[in-house]
């Protein structure tokens, strides 16, 4: 069946049913939403995956259900009507490669198939450099500004509640933009509350700030899911059986935890022929995948000549170029690349090598010969952002030891400004590839900054410093809408670079801080402060906690200083632990060298 015909068959019933509602809806479809649904549905109906990078395949042919949980509920998002009737607004929280974006595609197509709402997908990273507000972005996305956002037709269609807004990548919003973008999104959700909303994010992004949203956690693949995923993705029966046999071998139980992540499982399937073992380090997955991508096009052609990359570069040349490019682009906060950006940056990289090649030929090899870059519309990107993080970590690990600290410092400055959780996967790779230098040049210096800042004898100064680090807010403990009276609150940490370090390395359990109002007896007095701040910002459930004349005496009276000292002690202990590990490593090396 013709591809466009299949897509048209999917969206036509939806379009026809809405066009018959009123002349206003007919006009709305005539001015652009039909075009939007056609192009967006084609993009998701036929898709690339990590395994199918060089060809588009039907989404339904390769999709294995991704599940998410909320309390005792587990859902695969098949019964969308019932799910969104019960949970009107959902946050979908999952780690890198857990399947969030894939699940968004499924929900988009599934809601179209059911014909009950019109799906609108927005990539939230576009707001970082966008000059207009969120509602204007919606208008441009749907109807390409053919009518103004203030147009009554546009507003009435939004107020009708017929849309499902899929907001992808909350964790990609820059830290300095997050507060304003939060305000805009919350206002939009409140203004058009009859619609349904779903937001995806990695953990630790501060998504808990949103009122009336339920946090669904993307579930890891269990043993049955792993086998089902392989059954769906791998077509050759003999290869399928060999992969399943290896994964189910009891000897590999310690390593199969990696395969509970759909991305890493896809990587393993792709690299299986060349590397039929399960690596015990995450970085080994990426190395094996790169080897496979590079070598799979080096087979013998029909005329018995080995295929060549048109740049005539070798494996190590591509690896070096990719590692430099990834460091530069990650440093600049770039995860997708226009042709102009790609060409300009690769020209800079070329200048650092002694290789003679054309940049256009290099782009061709990266996209076609190796297929490590995918052209999606008008922008290039890696099959997954974690590949960019791997090559960046690889670049740093190969620098002279005295230069690595500079590289970590440069990236730290970038990560403070951009999405906080983007660093989690990157840090784990750095720790694997360059553990001693990463710990001594990045982690310990960051912790010592906290340690020094928290060495204050005056309680007020100590509170000031602590609050600058954690950037706290008061937030209801129970989920409620904006109209429900709040009776229990906790102290919530805003997601930022510093809190990410504490969380990633499991240095301190922040439950004591969150439950401080309730456990200390400060609940009622802090609740009054919360209500006053809320009165000034009625569209937000979160109230930023300031150290002022009213708040300071309450916090000191109920001994929040003890919580802060416990926080500092955890940092002190972690620094000592890490320094001892580095010293033991040095002594072991000295013994080997006979020093």
UniProtKB/TrEMBL annotation:
The lineage of its organism: Bacteria, Pseudomonadati, Bacteroidota, Chitinophagia, Chitinophagales. It holds the Pfam family SNaCT8. PANTHER family: NACHT DOMAIN-CONTAINING PROTEIN, NUCLEOTIDE-BINDING OLIGOMERIZATION DOMAIN-CONTAINING PROTEIN 2-LIKE. Residues 568-595 form a coiled coil. Keywords: Coiled coil. InterPro entries: NACHT_NTPase, P-loop_NTPase, SNaCT8. This is NACHT domain-containing protein. Residues 88-208 form the NACHT domain.
